[in-house]
């Protein structure tokens, strides 16, 4: 079996799995709760995940991250960014996963101002050492049409890897500068 087929089979039974978890009374376990969120998100059912999430009084960072990245992954950037705002207002401290997902949402919306704010937040919060965050920053600046800021940030990286190069090259291509992407 292939992974896509396995996921399709799992998604067909998502509501049954959720019902089983409720019947057994194990829905209070934070790992099981987050697994259910991820199940709905990966089954392209972020609204069911959101209902489950909103019904829970106490949520850990991993659950918040599952929802924010899930919304972003499912092309729901407004919802992802709104949830980030709610998370911060509830004094849950974002981590690298949160930041990378929020920057991805900014990329989808081409919202430079908010992207810069999140970049600054990551810088101030000491969250810049993560490769996912670095790539998300490069991507966000490129998709917001300011490829020179992508390049400037790229040039300041202490460690440049294949992922960073790929995002920068793609950014030049997205901005209509295929010649520069080939030269890199």
From TrEMBL:
Gene3D superfamilies per the UniProt record, alphabetical: Tetratricopeptide repeat domain (1.25.40.10)
GO biological process terms, semicolon-separated: RNA modification
One family name in Pfam for this protein: PPR
Superkingdom assignment: Eukaryota
InterPro entries: PPR_At4g14850-like_plant, PPR_rpt, TPR-like_helical_dom_sf
PPR repeat residue numbers: 60-94
Keywords associated with the record: Repeat
Protein name per the record: Pentatricopeptide repeat-containing protein
Originating species: Lithospermum erythrorhizon
Lineage, opening ranks: Eukaryota, Viridiplantae, Streptophyta, Embryophyta, Tracheophyta
